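Page 47, continued from p. 46.
Same chain as before, 393 aa.
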Amino acid sequence: MPDRREIGRILEIVIGVLFLCALEIPYAHEILLGHNDFSTFYAGAKLARTPALYDPAAARPLVEAGWPDAPPQEIYLRAPFYAVLLKPLAWLEYRAALIVFLALSLASFLWFVLRFAKESPELPILAAFSIPMFLNFNGGADVAFLLPLIGGFILFSRRGRDFAAGLLLALCAIKFHLFVFVPVLLIFMKKWRTLAGAVFGTAALMLLGGPSLILPWIQTMLSPLITGMPIWKLSPAPNIHGLAVVLGAGAKTEFVLTALVVAVFLFLCIRVREFELLLAAALVCGLLTSFHSFTYDDLLLMPALVLAAPYRVLKSIAGLALTPIAYLAAFAGGFYPAILPVMLVAFVAAACFTRPHSTLKISACDYSPRSTSRTAFETSLPNSSTVSAPPQS
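Result:
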């Protein structure tokens, strides 16, 4: 029979789920109609491996068929290979495809929470109150699909299966701008097999999507339709750009702040040898420096929380950044939208001074002596030379 503490945790999770469900009620109709980003993914699936994939004249009618009043910037923007992976959705009617998409998104989210709940006991409660997941679900976004990819990357890296970890990392190219610091980390850590897997996987995915579509994709990403996205959509973002907007700072200040984040990360790569600590910092730095990082992208703070588990200060900052406080405060306007990016800056800064705070147990499935790099979990284990032998009978 569960004890009081376990009953309390279950009650907190139930309250969190009810809280998110209550937030969803006003938007339920729009969600079920698919008047959100899913319309662009469905259009991409329909046009996969065709020259019309990045042609607004061909794509807009498909987007508007699912979302009649979609803003003009709502077109398919992901890499060509992602449209091929979404192709099975194009075989379904729009509403049926939407239900499948949302179900897969929710399943990805739940898998990550359940798989890492043991080493990060706070994760289920924070997940139950997750505003980023609420926005992901509400907006028809696909960020939740990154969670099992990152989770698999972590697990494969712990087991020493570096090439397989690299293959999963390649799939994260669906939102490549959030992972630009990870290859830098792999180079500093000399994880060449992981890099080889990532390069091989990326090349295979580009071939899958159609090499002839790579240039049109790049041109679309650089087009004024995207770079000129309305400031209302970018200003609440939990990144350096959002912080600069709240502070009323110009482009020069934003550039300097971004350069400082990059410099701090490079300093960490030189000074720190704990792979998982650096991976957590890489994810947070990606959120901070990406111009197109939005609130629902903060789902990536969940892997950062798991990776920061051995570090008291980092764990506290990541956990606080996953609570509804900062997100709900942003709706108040004024300086409040700056709270979240300031928290992420504090995470990166604190990483420069932190050390593991406790001994954590690693199951046999999470560790293999084949691993050539010491993770944060490994560094928190006592050295074998200091462990006393059991008394002899």
